[in-house]
Specification:
The chain has 193 residues and is mainly α. It is 61% helix and 2% strand. It has a two-stranded antiparallel sheet with strand order 1-2. Helix 6 packs antiparallel against helix 7, helix 7 runs parallel beside helix 9 and helix 9 packs across helix 10. The longest helix has 17 residues. The two termini are 28 Å apart.
Amino acid sequence: MVQELVGIAAEEERYVWPFHMRVMHGNFLFLDAASERDTFMSSLLKVAREISDAQIERLLNSGDWRDRLCAPWFIGLTFREQFVPRIDKLLSQGGHGQGYCVALALIGTDECAAALRRYLDTHLPINDQEFDQDWALGALALLEGEVPAEYLKPDLWKIWRSEKDPMPGINRFAKIIAYLRSYISPQGSSPDA
């Protein structure tokens, strides 16, 4: 048990702490200099290619939100399609789903689109459970070529007594994925491949 905790701590230090604040909300897009963004992306892609499937599983199982935010980015950046069922399950539980949406959008299979639809069908209307529904809708829009109208109904986006406009989140998500796609190709491979 102690050795497993030491292993998780080392993995978090290598794979999570340098990245979690910048991948959250796509904050890396707003670094002041293009060179900073390029350096960040180079580092992110390097560790995404280095991390093993077993290490990703440990991060997904850790229960820490930071680990569960970063692990799906690594999955998506290296097109590890075998994780889609696991991401589907984790996304359906609600909570922080930004990383899961990124992975599903980058992998881009029909199974990914189905997972996003299941999530939206479960977590809309928002009511008082605002998670990352706008990111999920942004991912689905990228996979299907347009924002599905059935998920834009205003009554689905009511939070308490006001409405949330999902379009800013959808547009931000599209910018993040476009930026990521400019750095990666479907030939990305995992170290376990």
